[in-house]
Automatic annotation (TrEMBL):
SUPFAM superfamilies: Cytochrome P450. This is Cytochrome P450. Transmembrane segments: none annotated. The lineage of its organism: Bacteria, Bacillati, Actinomycetota, Actinomycetes, Propionibacteriales. GO terms for molecular function: heme binding; iron ion binding; monooxygenase activity; oxidoreductase activity, acting on paired donors, with incorporation or reduction of molecular oxygen. Keywords: Heme, Iron, Metal-binding, Monooxygenase, Oxidoreductase. The keyword Oxidoreductase applies.
Length: 400
């Protein structure tokens, strides 16, 4: 069997330690030592970690690898315990349920709706950067990368202005809960809010995604209340957390290389390609959502029994030199198509066009308003989220 046994708990891969400031050295060591690793997962339960690009990409599209927790071996997996009204989302569903719900959502989540948000995204970015320019310094995460996507998501979903402060507070608590009681309270508050929001949109539809999801149908098929609530939750959670980290990580990568910052600033045609390369280089999700084989599955010589937990190393795959030569360098001339930062297969990120739009506008606004932006602290003093599931800065102090 071509696999090694390693300990993933507390950021340790056997003899390899993953550090929040630079996890990529650990990913590199894991790829070199083997394509598949038998590990203790983040919650202490046994898992399998897949590290190389070709294997990860194939596994992401393999129908034998289920995302439905009911296919897990009892006692093998301990994940986030959400109420049913939040758990019936696309990340926990296989076909045919996944196919049916994604088809209905796609009818509402149209390219036209995404494109219609561009002007509002740019206006919000400009407004957020005005005090930054005036003051000459900022924590770019707290003052820009975080409030921008939460405003965009609230606009998309039709969340009233007066509810947005609570909305962001609940989301932040769920991302980094002080304790289990606070996490449960935030989930409960969000669930009650979503139920009220959906009921209000049923009575008085608006020009927003929630109203369109309520109206979406295929013949006589509609989304159930739990499916609606779970979808709204997923769109909020993924559309907020991932974009915060994408903006922060991308900005830092450009600040690390002033020549690249200047190149994109002086030639905006470079921006779309830069967004793709920056997502590959330092994406927000080191691991894909866990999978459970519905039958024994062989991955690059390792036989994984049915029902055991499989973790697919997105960040490791995106730094695989067999697929991306010189992967630890930002290369704006790279043919970067095929990166896995937004997934692959049927679970490819539904909000990918919106994420790309937000990152491009966020970076362009920075290049316009603060062309001389630079780090406000030494690079070594930056603090990262202490997580193997999320790759993001806690703060990004900058000077203008």
């Amino acid at each position: 069997m071509r696999h090694t046994s390693t300990n993933f708990s507390a950021g340790i891969f056997g003899p390899v330690t993953i550090t929040p400031s630079d996890p990529y050295a650990a990913y590199s060591a894991l790829r070199r030592s083997g394509p598949v690793h038998r590990i203790a997962g983040p919650d202490g339960s046994p898992s399998w970690l897949v590290t190389r690009y070709d294997d990860v990409r194939r596994a992401l599209a393999d129908p034998r690898l289920s995302v439905d927790k009911r296919n897990a071996v009892p006692g093998n997996y301990r994940g986030l315990n959400l109420p049913p009204a939040l758990d019936a989302n696309l990340l926990n569903l296989d076909p045919p349920d996944h196919t049916r719900i994604r088809s209905l959502v796609t009818r509402a989540f149209t390219p036209g709706r995404i494109e219609s948000l561009a002007a509002a995204i740019r206006r919000t970015a400009d407004e957020l950067l005005t005090p930054v320019v005036r003051r000459g310094r900022a924590d770019l995460v707290a003052e820009y990368a975080a409030p921008l996507p939460i405003t965009v998501i609230c606009d998309l979903l039709g969340v009233p202005e007066e509810a947005r402060t609570d909305f962001r507070a609940w989301t932040d608590t769920m991302l980094a809960p002080p304790g289990p009681d606070e996490a449960r309270a935030a989930i409960g508050a969000m669930l009650r809010f979503f139920a009220g929001l959906i009921e209000g949109k049923r009575s008085l539809p608006g020009d927003d995604l929630v109203s369109d999801l309520i109206a979406a149908r295929d013949d006589d098929d509609r989304l159930s209340d739990d499916e609606l609530t779970s979808l709204v939750f997923l769109i909020l959670f993924a559309g907020y957390e991932n974009v915060v980290h994408l903006i922060g990580n991308a900005t830092l990568a450009l600040l690390d290389e002033p020549a690249l910052w200047e190149r994109v600033r002086s030639d905006r045609s470079q921006l779309p390609g830069a967004v793709e390369e920056l997502m590959r280089y330092d994406g927000p999700a080191p691991l894909a959502i866990r999978r459970f084989p519905i039958e024994d599955v062989e991955i690059d010589g390792a036989m994984i029994p049915a029902g055991e937990t499989v973790l697919l190393g997105i960040s490791s795959a995106n730094r695989d030199p067999e697929r991306f030569p010189d992967p630890d360098r930002v290369d704006l001339d790279r043919a970067v198509g095929g990166h896995l930062a937004l997934g692959h297969g049927i679970h490819y990120c539904l909000g990918a066009p919106l994420a790309r739009l937000e990152i491009a506008i966020a970076l362009e606004a920075l290049l316009d308003h603060v062309p001389g932006l630079h780090l406000g602290v030494p690079r070594s003093e930056l603090r990262w989220r202490d997580s193997i599931r999320t790759r993001g800065l806690l703060e990004l102090p900058v000077m203008c």
